[in-house]
Amino acid sequence: MKQKLAAWLPAGVFLCLLVSLSVWNLLRPVRGFSENENRVLAQFPEATADSVFSGEFSEEYETYLADQFPMRDGWISLKTRTELLLGKKDINNVFFGSDGWLIEKYEGTLDAERTEANLGRLGDFMQFAADRLGADHVRAMLVPTASGVLLDRMPPFASDFDQAALLEEAAGLCPEGTFLDLLPLLQAHQEETIYYRTDHHWTTLGAYYGYAAWAESIGLTPWAREDFTEEAVTDSFYGTTHSKVNLPVEPDSILRWTPRTPVSYHLEYNLGERESDSLYDETKLEGKDKYAYFLGGNNPIVTITSSSGEPGRRLLIIKDSYSHCFAPFAANHFEETTLVDLRYFNLGMKTYLEQEDFTDVLVLYSTANFADDRNLNTLVK
């Protein structure tokens, strides 16, 4: 009897654990958003005859279970520690670099066909914009991610997708002189804090170097670093790469650069939905997504009016979130700066450019976001 009990004990414990987790999962409230991962979580899928027989329902249900699993953040941490003990160099698409650096990995997650289509759309739009505004007023910048720049901080023998090749192809498709390759510039500053250690964005310093190069390329005199005061607004920032592994590491600081000569700004969000007189949203520093401090995070359209800008000069930035800490520099040169996020803005960019009297255009994305963006078809509409 004791031998039979001993034989069944592990199975019984496992069954009890499984039932307990299932009951817990059913009784606990369904979460809509993960603050730690900064993303919307999957909800219970709708079952239809088509979705059940096609297998779509089962796939969506598996995603729902994974997203709503009890103590998800703790399990992510346990999984990370286990895989580190097994000697893995990257976990959940995050490289574990030297000195506590967590560097996003993109190789294997990008669709080559989509990347090629996006590059073609960029070349098409840039030609259209250059013909309309003049090549001196049109630029595209695809900002290399940390894995393409911080090579000395990457794990031994680790590599990511070929960003240099992507930048070279993009330059070849754009009208001559309109594409700005930042890879050599950022590599020259790789010993400085130009990327966050726990997040996939570049820092305010990295954005400043990009701004200065862009301004010079279109005939503007960039403001010197000495023209700003630098202040840490938080020393407890944990970004998106940290959320993927959930291990205790030293947090990042977010710096705000303020012009020494006072400049007044007025921001209009989403065509009048709300307004502000600050480039920064202090409330975002209280939550997990502290990078949203810049311009208040993702919005379909934001228009910035600046007292220091050249009268009559209007800049359109077609962008991802790398532009959020870049725009406070660029806005100082233009009477009006408009940022458009194609994920939320349905009007085609060719049509928009024809309707509005912009004098300058900048397409600004990270290389990885640009390669994988599903909304760039609106560039050519």
Silhouette: globular
How many distinct beta strands?
14
Rounded to an integer in angstroms, the radius of gyration calculated over CA atoms is 24 Å
Instruction: Tell me, rounded to a whole number, the average pLDDT.
Output: 87
Question: What are the low-pLDDT stretches, counting only 5+ consecutive residues below 50?
Answer: none
Query: Helix amount, in percent?
Result: 25-40%
Q: Strands of the largest sheet, in order across it?
A: 6-14-12-13-11-9-10
Number of helices: 13
User: How many angstroms separate the termini?
Assistant: 76 Å
Topology readout:
Blueprint: H1 2-27, E1 33-34, E2 39-40, H2 49-54, H3 56-67, H4 72-85, E3 90-91, E4 94-96, E5 102-104, H5 112-133, E6 138-143, H6 146-149, H7 163-173, H8 183-188, H9 204-217, E7 228-237, H10 240-245, E8 252-259, E9 265-269, E10 274-276, E11 301-306, E12 310-319, H11 327-330, E13 334-340, H12 349-355, E14 360-366, H13 367-372
Helix pairs in contact: 5-7
Characterize the structure shown:
It is a single chain. The longest helix has 26 residues, at 2-27. The chain has two domains: 25-70, no CATH class; 102-380, no CATH class. The protein is built from 13 helices and 14 strands. The strands form four sheets. The chain has a seven-stranded mixed sheet. Strands 3-4-5 form a three-stranded antiparallel sheet. A hairpin with a 4-residue loop joins strand 1 (33-34) and strand 2 (39-40). The chain is globular, with a radius of gyration of 24 Å. With 381 residues, it is α+β, with helices and mostly antiparallel strands.
